[in-house]
Design goal:
Oligomer: single chain
Radius of gyration: 23 Å
Distance between the termini: 88 Å
Structural class: mainly alpha
Mean pLDDT: 82
Strand content: under 5%
Length: 244
């Protein structure tokens, strides 16, 4: 009973945090600078708070429809996370087009490599190919996102970037990516151990909440960059007065 209460509390607490951070971004007028994060939060809300509950209510937890929708939505969320990381790389390279021109093909090559490795695993299986492919692709792409996000953090540190919003966004994503990576490791460590299985159940949710809390803190406490005021021209009448 207590486990169910904790699970529902974490689940709906996550939904509330997703919505709250999105509202904070919109109310503070930062949606342009946080465009990628806002779209990712909308995707999370659409999948977690709307899509999965509707399919679960209609077909049931043991149905094939819910199983396929769950794994497919996981792939969609991972693709959204990958695109978010790419957008953060673009923001980090603002004003340095040569660096971005080199990074863009690299990011495309990483995606192609992950897709190729995932497809290569299919020859070992003859049943449930779609589910196996979605699982392999999602896991491989998540690890790629974790590595890319770490490289982005190192890049910001080496450049001593003054964009605190970007740094906090990257740190929040690092928390999120660490959860599934740790879960994959726990699968091999658990071996029927109940304590490990309980940790596996809640670790990903805690990491998502940590990411959302980090982003919320950044929106509330990190000041927006000061806008450089344009130099105003002197009025015509003032110039005439000076000449006279």
């Amino acid at each position: 009973m207590s486990d169910s209460i904790l699970a529902y509390g974490l689940q709906y607490g996550g939904y509330i945090l997703e919505f709250a951070v999105l509202v904070l971004i919109l109310r503070t007028g930062r949606w342009r600078r946080w465009m990628g994060v806002s779209l990712y939060l909308l995707l999370l809300l659409s999948v977690d708070a709307v899509g999965r509950p509707l399919v679960l209510h209609k077909y049931g937890v043991s149905s094939t429809q819910y199983e396929y929708f769950y794994w497919l939505s996981d792939v969609v969320l991972t693709l959204g996370a990958f695109l978010l990381v790419c957008s953060l790389f673009r923001r980090a390279c603002a004003g340095q087009e040569k660096i971005w021109d080199m990074l863009l093909p690299t990011l495309g090559a990483v995606f192609a490599l992950v897709l190729g490795i995932s497809l290569a695993t299919l020859h070992e299986h003859y049943k449930n190919l779609l589910t196996i492919f979605m699982t392999e692709f999602q896991q491989n792409l998540y690890f790629a996102c974790l590595v890319l996000n770490t490289l982005l953090y190192i890049l910001l540190q080496r450049r001593q970037s003054e964009d605190e919003e970007l740094a906090m966004t990257v740190c929040g994503l690092g928390i999120q990516f660490a959860g599934p990576a740790a879960n994959f490791a726990l699968v091999y460590l658990a071996q029927g151990n109940a304590s490990f299985q309980a940790l596996y159940q809640y670790l990903g949710v805690f990491c998502t909440i940590g990411m959302l809390a980090t982003w919320g803190y950044a929106v509330v406490h990190v000041p927006q960059p000061a806008k450089v005021a344009s130099k105003e021209r002197s009025p015509v009448w003032a110039s005439s007065a000076l000449r006279s």
